[in-house]
Amino acid sequence: MPILIAIFWIALSLGLQILLFNHISLGGGIALAYLYMIVRTPVDWHRSWQILLGFLVGFVADVFFNTPGLHALTCTTTMWLRLPLLHMFIVADDIKTGCPTYHRLGSSVFTRFVAAVVLIHCVLLYILEAFTLFNFLNLFLKIVMSFIMTFLLLWAADVANDTK
User: Fold this and answer.
1) Which of 38, 39, 62, 103 has the fewest Cβ atoms within 10 Å of its own Cβ atom?
2) For 151, how many CA atoms within 13 A lie in the half-sphere containing its CB?
3) d(CA 93, CA 80)
């Protein structure tokens, strides 16, 4: 994926997040559109560049959401865990270049991979945001609703965007 295409997808996903998805809440959770770029980052990019990209996406989200460091930390951590998660579901030799997509990984593997990435991100984000387990039921509902909305959004976006 050339860098200009990556910049386009980052700008599009963050723009949609800021202008649209932050204003749609269900059960306290929101769809996190900016995770699309984290899921679709090419595996052949140097690991340091991937983690830096995760940090930059989170940093931009922090600037617009007024959450100093929260999204930067969670996006960086999610990006750091992304490749090990991917290799949990496939053999490392199966995807050495390109992006993990619905078409390349297949329905089952892609679904499990996206679900794992989104679940880790949502749990980390909302636990750090609350910084307490005092109102556990509310926190749990927020995580579940955000997970469902984000997973469906990312899965549908990749299936619709995927070219053979």
Assistant:
1) 103
2) 19
3) 19
Domain containing 128: what range? Answer: 3-161
Residue in 113, 107, 125 with CA at minimum distance from that of residue 34: 125
pLDDT tens digit sequence for 99-140: 888 888 888 999 999 999 999 999 999 999 988 778 889 999
The rounded percent of the chain whose pLDDT value lies above 90 is 54
Q: In this structure, what DSSP letter does residue 28 have?
A: T
Question: The whole model's pTM is what?
Answer: 0.89
What CATH number does residue 21 fall under? Answer: 1.10.1760
Nearest to 57 by CA among 121, 113, 106: 121
- What is the C-alpha separation between 57 and 95, in angstroms, rounded? 24
What span, in angstroms and rounded, lies between the C-alpha atoms of 104 and 118? 19
Cα distance between residue 75 and residue 96, in whole Å: 22
CA–CA distance, 83 with 92 (Å, rounded to integer):
9
Q: Are 143 and 24 in contact (CB under 8 A)?
A: no
Using CA atoms, how far apart are residues 39 and 32, in angstroms rounded to an integer?
Answer: 12
